[in-house]
Structures are given as C-alpha cells and as structure tokens.
C-alpha cells in the first residue's frame, strides 16, 4: 500500500478508555485526530474491569485522597453524560470487626460522602440484617451501605470512539503501529492493517497503549521509558444469581483486600476482583486455579448459597497497567495516573505517554493530557466534555420511558430485549431500527434477541468485526449463545464483510 503521508495534529496509539477519551476531547477542541487500536476497541483492560464507576473506597486506606476526590466527583459527571450505560447502585459492606473496626469504616464513609460533590447519589448509612431475608450467613448481623455506580465498561469505550469520530477523528481498529520516528519536527508513524503497511504524520504522538505503554516506548520508538510499569492481574467469576435484589456486596478478606459481588445482566452475579502481579504476555491473560479458589472461598465465607467451580458460568481476566511506585503489595500500587511528556528540544515532536489510570477518571485524565499539550496548539479550544452527553443520552428522559416507547412502536419486542437495547444504545437505537415496526422486519434472528439489523449496525457504525466483538463487548450475549449459535453468526459476518468489500471496491 502506498504511503498516505496524511498529517494529523494528534495520533493516539491505543483504543482503550484512555485512548478514546483523549481522542474525543482533542477532536472536540478542533484538533485533527487519528486513533489506532491493534485489536478491537476495549478488547483488553477496558473490558475486563469490575464494571464500576466508583470513588474507590479502599483507596482511602492508602491515602489516595486526590484520586478519590476526583473519582467521586466524576461519578456524578459520568452518570449525567451516559445514564443509559451507567446507573446508581447501592453497596452493602457486612461488618467484620476483626478485619476493620466500625469507627474506621464510619470515618472512611464520612470522607466518601463528603470528599467529592454528591447530588444524585444517596449517602451512607448503617444497616442491620435479618436472618430470614438476608442472603448473608446468620452470624453477620449488621453492616454499612453506600452509593457508587455500575457501568457497561466496553460500551463506555465504544461510545467515546463514536463521539470522537462524529467530532472528526479517524478511528481505525485491527491496525498496529509498527514504529514511529521523529523527522523534521514531526512524527512519521508506520501502521499495518489487513491491507498492508502505510504511513501517516503527526505533530504529537500519544501513547495510550495500556499494558504495552513502556514496551511501545522501548521497542517501537527506541526510546527510554520514563517510568516502570507494574502489570496487576484482576480476574472475575460470573455465577448464577446469588441473591435477590439489585444491590452489590463488598466483602472484606483476611488479607485486607476486598472483593465485590455485583448483580450482573439480571440473572448473574459478578464476583471479583483479584490483585496479583502478572509477568506474562498481556495478550493472553487467563484466570488461574488459585484465583478461582480465592474468589469462591471469600464468597462462601459470606453468603448462605455455597458455590463450587461447577457453578461458574464464565470467567474473565485482564491486567491493569499501573505506574510502578515500588510498592511491595500489588493491592497498594497507586491507581492514580501519571502523564509523561517527552519534549526536550523546541523543534522536537512531543510524545505524551499515559501510565496507569482507572475507568472512572478517564475524562479527567484526558483533560489533563490536553492541558499538557495546549502549548503546542495555541488555537486549541477550551475543555468541553464535562457537560457533553455521550451518544445515546440525547433527549433521554428516563430508561423506563424509552423502553415503553420502544415497546409501543415495535410490535413483538419483549420487555427484556427492549431493556437491553435501551441500556446499550439509548436514543441511538432508532438508528438501527430504521423505521421497522415489527421485530419480524429486523432480518435474520440469531436467537437470544439478536437480529441481523442490530449486527449490521454494529459492523457499520461500531467497528465490530468478529463474533467476540459483538457478543462479548457490544451486547454481552456471549453468555447465552451456544457453539451452533456462534457458528451461524460467524457465517453471517463473513457474508457481511464480503458485501462491504465488494461495495468498497466498486
């Protein structure tokens, strides 16, 4: 493929939450932006989280007050920006006096209630459990309750990518950055996709490669990384619903760690996460037997319903790329982010690298990144993302109202499917319905509420290529699909991609 040699203000490497956050913010400030991701959007760390937008109650023990304050404020901001994929959730912490005294928890929750602005979320309180209706073991008699939020993490990434593209950014997946070199005050960036190798140029290069951030600097840029990276593996179990209700539980363990039990997709409970040093290839992270035993053990210490490995429906694992603060304890390594700007000479093209960070603070991280880069773009517009709605939140009055509208306009749709669509797409669902008035007009039925028209939309507008892109990251239907179902969808996607290829050639 011949060199494009297109010049962009910003080239962003990495399609996780930090990469798309920076790309969105920059595009909205009037910069020309190119973002590339070597796999699918959110295909690694950003889809392997505990699915929470939270202040990080346990970070208070490590005196990370700045991070907690910022994260607490961002809960409210993000809840307003994307109420279809983010929702308030109450968290119950059963009290175990031998692990943390009640006064310490009350003090922590007081700070949690008051460190950041809190308008929509309820404050904390003390609660008592009644043995008859509590899912917890009878010897657990009281605890504490507080607020945080749950999120569809992968869709948060995709919605930011859509917004970046609508602001003028070019977003490409399955495109690897092979190398980048400074040349005549610019970056010459070499990229590879299925069609071949090509080049673009950039005034600034942003390294948001997550677990590969230091490797990218050392191997692809041939530079020295300013910080070391600690890869911390976090694994989760998905099991059948452990208890009734929509509240999460936060379970303390003897090692001073905490593990969540979170209602998931209406019929499951998500249990996680672990915190272990990871030394392997970030492309191939898998839960270990030791982690499975650890998570089952802590759940069984708290809940009446006892779990074995036979109850596990699915597992997932990811690695968090944290800036190395030389802590001996993986759980104590800072979750805060560090932005490293490499620009030693006036005529040298800048490099900005992102170390660490968490889902909740991605927007503030992006703002900080653009503030650092502002001297290089004197005409750049001001920050804008705090009040801007993410795609699907436009004209969304309430989830319930939109579900009712959808059921009224599309005959044959179940309440379950309407709810899934509203939570995934918000008001953007009308785009892929395309004037359909019945589910029978939506094309091939792959089962479990997935129709051809939704698949076509995901391929055309959300960078979906494979069944994993659609089932694991865009819809979460992988938990329902059989091997035969997946095979059928695979064949359909082959046909879709062949049609697109023929259309592009024509």
Automatic annotation (TrEMBL):
GO terms for cellular component: glycerol-3-phosphate dehydrogenase (FAD) complex. One of its GO terms (molecular function) is glycerol-3-phosphate dehydrogenase (quinone) activity. Residues 384-480 form the Alpha-glycerophosphate oxidase C-terminal domain. Residues 9-362 form the FAD dependent oxidoreductase domain. GO terms for biological process: glycerol-3-phosphate catabolic process. Keywords: FAD, Flavoprotein, Oxidoreductase. Its cofactor is FAD. It catalyses: a quinone + sn-glycerol 3-phosphate = dihydroxyacetone phosphate + a quinol. It is an enzyme of class 1 (oxidoreductase). Its EC number is 1.1.5.3. Pfam families: DAO, DAO_C. PANTHER family: GLYCEROL-3-PHOSPHATE DEHYDROGENASE (PTHR11985), GLYCEROL-3-PHOSPHATE DEHYDROGENASE, MITOCHONDRIAL (PTHR11985:SF15). Belongs to the FAD-dependent glycerol-3-phosphate dehydrogenase family. This is Glycerol-3-phosphate dehydrogenase. The lineage of its organism: Bacteria, Pseudomonadati, Pseudomonadota, Gammaproteobacteria, Moraxellales.
């Amino acid at each position: 493929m011949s060199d494009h040699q297109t010049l962009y203000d910003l080239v962003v490497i990495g399609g996780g939450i930090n990469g798309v956050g920076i790309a969105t913010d920059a595009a909205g400030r009037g910069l020309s932006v190119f973002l590339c991701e070597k796999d699918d959007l959110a295909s690694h760390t950003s889809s392997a989280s505990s699915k929470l937008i939270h202040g990080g109650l346990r970070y208070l023990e490590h005196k990370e007050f700045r991070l907690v304050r910022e994260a607490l404020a961002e809960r409210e901001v993000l809840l307003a920006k994307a109420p279809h994929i983010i929702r308030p959730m109450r968290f119950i912490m059963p009290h175990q006096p031998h692990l943390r005294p009640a006064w310490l928890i009350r003090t922590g929750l007081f700070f949690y209630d008051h460190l950041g602005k809190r308008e929509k979320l309820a404050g904390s309180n003390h609660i008592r459990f009644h043995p008859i209706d509590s899912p917890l073991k009878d010897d657990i008699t009281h605890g504490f309750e507080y607020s945080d939020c749950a999120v569809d993490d992968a869709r948060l990434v995709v919605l930011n990518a859509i917004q970046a593209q609508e602001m003028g950014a070019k977003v490409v997946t399955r495109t690897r950055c092979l190398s980048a070199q400074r040349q005549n005050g610019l970056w010459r960036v070499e990229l590879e996709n299925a069609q071949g190798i090509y080049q673009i140029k950039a005034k600034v290069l942003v390294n948001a490669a997550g677990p590969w951030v230091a490797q990218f600097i050392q191997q692809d840029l041939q530079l020295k990384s300013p910080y070391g990276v600690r890869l911390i593996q976090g694994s989760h179990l998905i099991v059948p619903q452990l208890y009734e209700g929509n509240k999460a539980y936060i379970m303390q363990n003897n090692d001073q760690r905490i593990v969540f039990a979170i209602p998931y997709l209406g019929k499951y409970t998500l249990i996680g996460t672990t915190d272990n040093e990871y030394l392997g290839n970030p492309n191939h992270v898998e839960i270990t037997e030791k982690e499975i035993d650890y998570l089952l053990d802590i759940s069984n210490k708290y809940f009446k319903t006892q779990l074995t490995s036979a109850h596990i429906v699915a597992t997932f694992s990811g690695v968090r790329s944290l800036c190395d603060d030389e802590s001996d304890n993986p759980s104590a390594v800072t979750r805060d982010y560090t932005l490293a700007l490499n620009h030693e000479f006036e005529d040298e093209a800048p490099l900005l690298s992102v170390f660490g960070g968490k889902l909740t603070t991605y927007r503030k991280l992006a703002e900080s990144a653009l503030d650092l880069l502002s001297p290089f773009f004197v005409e750049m517009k001001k920050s804008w993302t705090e009040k801007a709605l993410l795609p699907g939140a436009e004209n969304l009055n309430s989830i319930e109202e939109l579900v009712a509208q959808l059921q009224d306009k599309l005959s044959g749709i179940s309440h379950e499917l309407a709810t899934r669509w509203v939570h995934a797409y918000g008001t953007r669902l009308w785009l892929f319905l395309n004037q359909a008035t019945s589910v029978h007009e939506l094309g091939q039925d792959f089962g479990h509420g997935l129709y051809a028209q939704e698949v076509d939309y995901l391929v055309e507008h959300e960078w979906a290529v494979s069944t994993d892109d659609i089932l694991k990251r865009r819809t979460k239907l992988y938990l329902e699909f059989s091997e035969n179902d997946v095979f059928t969808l695979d064949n359909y996607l082959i046909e879709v991609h062949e049609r697109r290829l023929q259309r592009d050639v024509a």
